[in-house]
Amino acid sequence: MRRKNALSAIMAFACLVVTDAEAQFALWKHHGAAGTSLYGMRVRAAGDLDGDGSPDCIAVEPLLFGSSNPVVNAYSGKDGTTIHALSFPQGPNGLGLAIGAGADYTGDGVPDILLGSPGANAPPAIGLPSSPFGGVYIYSGKTGQFARARLGNGVIGFGTQIWCMPDVNSDGIADYAVLVGGPAAAGLASVQVLSGSDDALLTSVSALQAFDGFGLSFEVFDDFTGDGIPDFAMGAPYHQANGIFPGIIRFFSGASGAEYAPIVGVNDADVVGLAIASLGDSDGNSNVTVRPYTPVPSA
Questions:
Q1: CB–CB of 141/49 below 8 Å?
Q2: Which residue has the higher pLDDT, 52 or 25?
Q3: SS3 (DSSP) at 21
Q4: Of the candidates 37, 144, 9, the residue with the CA atom closest to the CA atom of residue 85
Q5: CA distance 246 to 168
């Protein structure tokens, strides 16, 4: 299946690289504080936070309902040294369940850290604004200090997922997208694209069906609409069509949120859209090439 006049290629399947076990070794490692710790439940590449020329990473133990305070640490990718240990005397419910990283939202030239807190009935946080609808909390990648928050309004689950995006409103600052509601939301989940400079809403796109898995996958493309602005795709692997559940990949303009022709699976349980990855123009014809993910039947 192909989409014309695009500069990227995508695949909707998972890739696993296997190497000789004897050649694998740990460069460094960190452990959670207790046997019940969920430390490492979320890990993201963060860009170069400490200016040593090597990419760094973030590891999170999210604050789940009724659990202890969240743990968010930034580590040197070079040697595992702790760059930042973010402190949360008390945080909104679900803080750290979503992470965004790798883009500068504070204007200091260093990538920053975005933490999602989708929990409903969030308690008042010490030193942090909070909302019963969830929020996104931006921390400086340079200093580790809280910078600002973008709170949800009216729909529970704001901040279920976060994706850093290129600059789609041409103001010179990277933007970001936030999943509202979640892939298993009873209502229609949505994705809001927000300005990285002032957190204003730029555009919003919604699921076609409840419980369709909208937001389980997301990918940004160089520009498949030809307007010079990066575009994006969303997967909904449990989308229903013609009495079966083949899944769907939906394509949207980064500039306007306008939707283009989707790619829908053929067979029941194809789960097309479970994963999406940008490959660039893999065959040199300026088209988008899509290979649907299909699970391998068990023996």
A1: yes
A2: 52
A3: helix
A4: 144
A5: 31
Sign of the C-alpha dihedral, residues 135, 141, 143, 147?
Answer: negative
Q: How far apart are CA 5 and CA 289, in angstroms?
A: 11
Residue 56 is encoded by which pair of tokens? 């760094």
pLDDT of res. 38: 77
Using DSSP bridges, classify how beta strands 98-101 and 82-86 pair: parallel, antiparallel or unpaired.
Answer: unpaired
Which stretches of 158-200 are assigned E, i.e. beta strand? 158-165, 175-180, 190-194
Q: Which helix (H) or strand (E) is 42 found in, with range? A: strand 42-47
Indicate the residue type of 136: V
The H or E element that residue 231 is part of is: strand 231-236
pLDDT of residue 54 exceeding 60, the answer is yes
Q: Are 286 and 222 in contact (CB under 8 A)?
A: no
Write down the mean pLDDT value for the chain: 81
Cβ atoms of 38 and 95 closer than 8 Å: no
Sign of CA dihedral 28, 33, 38, 39: negative
Each residue's pLDDT tens digit, 193-235: 999 999 999 999 999 998 899 999 999 988 888 899 999 999 9
Backbone dihedral angles phi then psi of residue 104, each to the nearest 5 degrees: -95, 115
Q: What is the DSSP string of 109-137?
A: SS--EEEEE--TTPPPBTTB---TTBEEE
- Residue 272 pLDDT more than 60? yes
Give the H or E element holding residue 201. strand 201-206
Are residues 9 and 279 in contact, defined by beta-carbon separation less than 8 angstroms? Answer: yes
Q: Is 83 helix (H, G, I), strand (E, B) or coil?
A: strand
Closest CA to 92 of 50, 136, 139, 38: 136
pLDDT for 125: 56
The pTM (predicted TM-score) of the whole model is 0.83
Dihedral angle of Cα 71, 167, 199, 124, to the nearest 10 degrees: -10
